[in-house]
Amino acid sequence: MYISPIVILMGAAEGIATGSMLLFIALFFLSLVVARLWCGWLCPMGAWQEICSPVIKRTVKAGWLNYLKYLVTVLWLGALAYFFAGAGGIRAVDPLFATDNGLSITSPATLIVVVVIFTIIILAAFIAGRRGFCHVLCPIAGLMIAGRKIRNLFRWPALGLSADPARCIDCKKCTQICPMGLDVNAMVRKGDMDSPECIMCAGCADTCPEGAIRYGCTGK
Fold first, then answer.
1. How far is CA 137 from the centre of its chain?
2. What distance in Å separates the CA atoms of residue 83 and residue 7, rounded to the nearest whole number?
3. Residue ranges per domain, the chain?
4. Which of 1, 42, 174, 194 could form an S-S bond across to 184 if both were Cys, CB 3.0 to 4.6 Å?
């Protein structure tokens, strides 16, 4: 319940800022310095897609599908503003909203809801490609990408990738390992490692046999 955009809307309809809303706000501000680190290291929805990735061979291609999540994010934010306005604004803060003393799954009914949600996530991945939900539907991704764009505008030091094209031997292991299906090899050759779809998992840096990709704080 702490990472549910639906629970946020449920709380907004009652004028309540929920724990999930507090988390979303925190992730936006964290994205100003660590980009989509949450997606690569901590998100259970992302982990679920990673677990299922051996049976999902296709990758999400560049194109209009990647922009759909921005529409989802805008519509969701609009709905959030509408519900809060209808409730007379934020009248209370309840970090444990929609939980049972902080626990999300305490009954067969809530377990069924979670199973349905995770089924939708994996279906999105099957239809769109690996990490399809992250590419196409996730509003959290839209928020964190916005945070990264703000950081790039002001160029303060932040977590990121950098590359030395001269050290690249075109083995393409970086591209093969990327869970988001990015053409990392092409990014290295261009010397531009900043992509809104990068989830900062560092897999490409770890797998590069020549150390052409570096992972750490960058001022670019």
1. 10
2. 12
3. 5-150, 157-218
4. 174
Q: Are 179 and 203 in contact (CB under 8 A)?
A: yes
Task: Identify the sign of the CA torsion 9, 151, 192, 212.
Answer: negative
Neighbours of 197 (CB within 10 A): 19
Task: Copy the structure tokens of residue 28.
Answer: 């936006």
Q: How far apart are CA 11 and CA 18, in angstroms?
A: 6
* Residues 192, 220: Cα–Cα separation, whole Å: 10
Question: What residues does 49 pair with on adjacent strands?
Answer: none
| CATH (one of 3.90.470.20, 3.30.70.20, 3.40.50.720, 3.40.50.150) for 157-218 | 3.30.70.20
Name the maximum alpha-carbon separation found in the chain: 60
In contact, 186 and 172? CB cutoff 8 Å:
no
Instruction: Give the Cα separation of 193 and 210 in Å (integer).
Output: 16
User: What's the one-letter identity of residue 219?
Assistant: G
Q: pLDDT for 115-169, tens place per residue?
A: 999 999 999 998 999 999 999 999 999 999 999 999 999 999 999 999 999 999 9
